[in-house]
Design brief:
Blueprint lengths: L1 H17 L8 H5 L5 H23 L5 H20 L6 H21 L13 H18 L3 H11 L3 H25 L5 H10 L2 H15 L2 H25 L1
Helix pairs in contact: 1-3, 1-10, 3-8, 3-9, 4-6, 4-8, 5-7, 5-11, 6-7, 7-11
Length: about 240
């Protein structure tokens, strides 16, 4: 269990720093194989916050704030709703719905052609609010906010550095916002905080590997990889929902 968890945390760091969260969200499902999902969520949040603090130092000045101004307020609403429904809403239904959305969007992107172009200020506000709220909601339940945000950012066709930077700043905001909600519903314990502390040393290594990977991936393969990662995350969510 510790080996699997360590690998998932390391991969999460690589993903957040270099792939825009394309492979994020793996830690909680992996950890849930040997501890309760509630404990897994509590263990992972402090680690994600440490990753975010490292990430914003690396990517400051490169995020697309025109998008974040809509994504973040929407995510806060999603976090509040997710907190109210924590432990009440069926995880199966959330996973099934999110899986269908992720697969549909990835299929649409794979059928389109054209290289990414810089996004402008003409932000699709309705889609931004839908994706932001979905990300906040699913991130609260299982730190699985990656697919909605990836769907939105891929639709914006940003340069790969801007794509990753915007994702990092978005998740920094919502992970910090989740912290008081988690405290209020009593998710943290001495044991979960100790586990978090033992896994935090993997963060710098994961971020370093992610940055090296990003420098080596050309623009077009990067977005192709991100789109396939979105599709695979959707398949996994569907399978988890059916199995659940």
């Amino acid at each position: 269990g510790w080996v699997v968890t360590a690998f998932a945390i390391l991969l999460t760091g690589v993903s957040k720093a270099g792939l825009g969260g394309a492979l994020g969200g793996l830690a909680v499902p992996f950890m849930s194989m040997w501890i309760s999902p509630r404990d897994a969520v509590a263990v992972v949040l402090p680690i994600l916050i440490v990753m975010d603090m490292v990430g914003i130092r690396v990517w400051r000045g490169k995020a697309q704030w025109a998008d974040l101004r809509h994504l973040i307020p929407a995510a806060l609403l999603g976090i509040a709703l997710g907190t109210l429904l924590f432990g009440v809403l069926s995880d199966r239904m959330v996973k099934l719905a999110l899986g269908v959305i992720a697969i549909a969007f990835a299929a649409d992107r794979l059928l389109r052609t054209g290289a990414p172009v810089p996004g402008g200020d003409d932000v699709p506000r309705g889609f931004a609010w839908l994706c932001g709220a979905s990300a906040g909601f699913t991130s609260t339940l299982a730190h699985a906010g990656g697919p909605p945000v990836m769907a939105y950012l891929l639709s914006r066709r940003l340069a790969k550095e801007v794509f990753v930077a915007t994702s990092v700043f978005f998740f920094t905001a919502i992970n910090l916002a989740k912290l008081p909600f988690y405290v209020a519903i009593g998710l943290f314990s001495r044991e979960t905080l100790l586990m978090s502390a033992m896994l935090v040393p993997l963060v710098p290594l994961g971020v370093w590997l992610g940055l090296r990977l990003l420098r080596r991936i050309p623009e077009r393969p990067f977005f192709l990889f991100a789109t396939w990662a979105l599709a695979l995350s959707g398949v996994k969510l569907l399978l988890d929902g059916v199995a659940g």
